[in-house]
Amino acid sequence: MVKVITDSSTLYTVKEGRDAGIESIPLCVSIGDCHGRDLQMDMQDFYRRIEAGQIPTSSQPPIGDVLDAYEQYKDQPILNISMADGLSGTYQSAEGAREMAKNREQITVFNSRTLCGPHRYMVDQARKMAEEGRTRDEILDWLKAAADRTESFLIPQDFSFLRRGGRLTPVAAAVGSLLKLKPIVKLTADGKKLDKFGVKRTMSGAVDSIIRYLQDKKLGERHLLYISHAAAAEEARRMKELFAELFPGLEIHILELSPVFVAQGGPRCVAIQYIER
């Protein structure tokens, strides 16, 4: 059976991943004198440190951890479904570990071109297909199609986090200089950068602009919507109610962002993502 490996972009802890039948390798996070792994930090302490002026940074999982996972399942075909290349070095690290592995011919690394909610869904579906006895090539064919049927939007509260991370197109970076406005950025189709989608005066205006775009996409029963937030649970709940009212039959999930994504999007950022089933 194909073994599915991934990273903490799925927002699965190591234990949650193993309980679900996958290996989820956490990225690394540092803030001040605190150095740890994604989804293993105390979030209240993490946010307190940010409020005190400490700036978090993140990096890909140690290549040794990825290599250990490959060798743990050396008797199986392995499919590592990575978060978007370009937003992190995670994909390149996974490929580098594959080149070092004795069982490299058994390993395929797939660039999901997305992150968080849609990434999680792709991993879940790949695992289900593996359990059904589908081959690695069959799973890859589905993943390639799925990667073309997802889009992601981010509404940051503090644009400086994204600007420092260097994951913006030049146009999107310029938007960040606008004061007292709500920039909206959208993941590019290749999953490598965040580009300008719009600028609004309020959070509700920003959400409305995304809603109008998604209405043109005719979201409904064949889609999943993910609302992921960084300590903005009430805003996420209100958004879910609004989307549920406007998009009958749409399945909606709320997720809390991990330290890695708070480090990039900043506190109270909200991501809105969809993927076609």
From TrEMBL:
<dbReference type="InterPro" id="IPR043168">
    <property type="entry name" value="DegV_C"/>
</dbReference>
<protein>
    <submittedName>
        <fullName>DegV family protein</fullName>
    </submittedName>
</protein>
<dbReference type="Pfam" id="PF02645">
    <property type="entry name" value="DegV"/>
</dbReference>
<dbReference type="InterPro" id="IPR050270">
    <property type="entry name" value="DegV_domain_contain"/>
</dbReference>
<keyword id="KW-0446">Lipid-binding</keyword>
<dbReference type="InterPro" id="IPR003797">
    <property type="entry name" value="DegV"/>
</dbReference>
